[in-house]
Specification:
CATH class: Alpha Beta
Strand order of the largest sheet: 1-2-3-5-4-8-9-10-11
CATH architecture: 3-Layer(aba) Sandwich
Radius of gyration: 21 Å
Strand content: 15-25%
Number of domains: 1
Number of strands: 11
Number of helices: 11
Helix content: 25-40%
CATH superfamily: Alpha/Beta hydrolase fold, catalytic domain
Length: 374
């Protein structure tokens, strides 16, 4: 009987899609949520909190009590990541290609021009970003950062939404992904290793270098160039999955990011009991999170005049970082920011779909939020 109901449901959704003329797989966000509840045998992991998570005292592991703590932790982060090279608003990309042309971008909406920005870093690793400028730019910049899915072009729908609304977009793929390179390093103890996975960054870390730099140096230098060349007055940052992790970290470091929207990104380490939630090198790097744990990164990314972070969690995420465990820490973060009297943090729970993505609902929320900045 259950199978019969399932088949009827599938048939009806195809009929709905046909008449709506969607041209896409026939589960829009609302239908997907219904499908989850219709067909799933166990929603426990999405709708309950593991008792283990409740045993951590959030306030005791968050070491921010006053504004000076914000500045101290931010400076410690910069020192940990850049070491002797230092964080600098003056440093620019290694190579700048104005009016870059490539067939991959031919079908982008409202696109006037592209600048390709390449950053060469230690151990032969390089990263390229693309500044997409619309025909009638509004003097505001959106940084879009893709995740482990690969090339940022997977986020074309999201990028187009901003271009159509006259926002310039600075688009990134993660290091080693997309069009970024995969060099072979010659390690004195382990031999030749091709860099294809972020976990291989462990081989490069030393007392004088942290591979976390590969994730944020391209953003720093490309943003410096973008502001210097185009005079953007507001900068927002959006990231999906691994790009949400990058958004969380970079917004904590650079307060030029006024509003940040990490979507489907990692939860604090104590909320990751399942293997599927543990993550990669960058998600669990002990030295990084001794310097600033996730809760402190949320605060740093939110704190400041007119600054805000909206962490978007897909409740029924098919990959990871799903559910309602955020309820353990959200109000604690808000309480700390209220005490500091500057900045805003909130979690938006997107229960409209079952994917690991930026849904139409979340995208509309982001667009409306940054429009309200005006």
């Amino acid at each position: 009987m259950g199978n019969k109901k399932y088949l009827i449901f599938i048939f009806l959704t195809f009929i709905i899609a046909f008449f709506l003329g969607s041209g896409e797989f026939p589960f829009d966000d609302t239908i997907q949520t219904f499908f989850i509840k219709f067909n799933s045998k166990d929603l426990t992991k999405y709708e309950t909190i593991d008792p283990l998570y409740l045993q951590t005292d959030v306030e005791s592991i968050t070491k921010i009590y006053q504004k000076n703590d914000i500045y101290e932790i931010r400076n410690n982060l910069k020192e940990f990541i850049w070491r002797e090279n230092s964080f600098s608003y003056e440093r620019l990309p290694s190579k700048i290609e104005n009016n870059f042309v490539n067939e991959k971008f031919y079908d982008f909406s409202n696109l006037q021009k592209i600048d390709k920005l390449t950053v060469n870093m230690e151990n032969g690793i390089s990263s390229s970003s693309y500044l997409l400028v619309p025909n009638d730019p509004n003097n505001e910049l959106v940084i879009y950062h893709a995740g482990h899915e690969g090339d940022f072009l997977h986020g074309k729908k999201t990028i187009n939404s901003f271009l159509k609304n006259n926002y310039s977009v600075l688009a990134f793929s993660m290091p080693l992904f997309g069009n970024n390179n995969n060099p072979i390093i010659d390690h004195p103890r382990f031999g030749k290793i091709k860099m294809t996975n972020h976990d291989s960054f462990y081989f490069l870390d030393s007392e004088n270098f942290s591979s976390i730099k590969y994730f944020v140096e391209p953003i720093l230098t490309s943003l410096n160039y973008s502001i210097d060349s185009y005079g953007f007055i507001s900068v927002y940052m959006i990231g999906i999955s691994g790009g949400a992790w990058t958004t969380t970290l970079y917004a904590a470091i650079d307060d030029r990011i006024t509003k940040s929207f990490p979507v489907a990104g990692p939860l604090p380490i104590f909320l990751r009991a399942d293997n599927e939630n543990l993550g990669h090198y960058e998600h669990i790097n002990p030295e990084l999170y001794e310097t600033a744990n996730y809760l402190e990164l949320y605060i740093l990314g939110s704190h400041g005049a007119n600054r805000e972070q909206v962490k978007i969690i897909n409740k029924y995420d098919s990959c990871c970082h799903y559910g309602i465990s955020y309820q353990i820490f959200e109000d604690k973060i808000v309480k700390i920011l209220d005490k500091l009297d500057s900045g805003s943090f909130e979690v938006y729970l997107d229960d409209t779909h079952m994917g690991h993505k930026i849904s139409d609902t979340s995208l509309n929320l982001i667009l409306q939020n940054i429009k309200d900045q005006k």
